[in-house]
Predict the structure.
Amino acid sequence: MSFVKTGPDRADFTLIHLSDFHLCRPEKASPLAFANKRILSYLSWRIRRRRLHDPEILDALIQAVRAQAADLIAVTGDLTQLALPAECDAAHRCLEALGSPQHVFMVPGNHDALVSAGWEARWSRWSDYMRADGPASPGRTVLPALRVRGRIALIGLSSAHPTRPFSAAGRVGADPLARCSDWLAEAAQRSLFRIVLIHHPPVPGMVSAHKRLSDADAFARMVQRHGAELILHGHTHQRSRVYLPGPRKPIPVIGAPSASAASRDPLHRAGFGMIRISCTPAGWAATFQDHWYSQEDQRFVPGEEEPISMPHHI
Ligand SMILES: [Fe+2]
């Protein structure tokens, strides 16, 4: 069991959630690098997506996040558009700009696993940002991973793996879900606040069939049995809050927009969520505050801080 506790044993915790950088760097790639599914994503980028994502907005978001001095920054995947090595390097620089691996915890998305050849090797430069607390285990995949910060337990799951053309689906897999179940159960016994990070929304019906999490039902059964206090995801590129059934009360599931979105639409414009967690005599309390990009002011603007209904009392 990997319950290595780091950080002060205090109950107040501030988490920032961001997602879906979609960094695209096709310029110096060899034509051979596109002799696979990558060509479809590249065409999608040329035709439509390059107008939807703005690297300058991502840079502004990173500066705005750094200014908040949160306890931990969670990044829920699709750091790259085409999973090219140059994009993985650029994404690594963004992670470094956000903070040290101790302070930034990421999971990959389907775009990061776009092509099968060498997909896990390309992620190796991000491994410090994905791995669990404690010493690395040779021969073991980095994810799933558990981090404990004071009374907060964070579980990172990978739903990203190579898929057939025209599919953006995801899957966690039986073994990672079993390890996640064990962690959720043990963290509950320790009265920790449990947060699960995953790229694909683990809620049936939120996205079309070719973008879905294929084992969403198994995920839902897991959290219905063991509970969780909060689930964070990306993939949809829009702000959302839905609930999954928990053992006693519904579990909040929060989706983040793309961190580089050039949209002015309130659902889709670039942003990050700030989640403040505290332990009160009545149990866990949490609030959510959106920060969204104002095209007029060219800066990120905080929204209202609002309570998140919590599934458990301790
Ligand atoms: Fe995405």
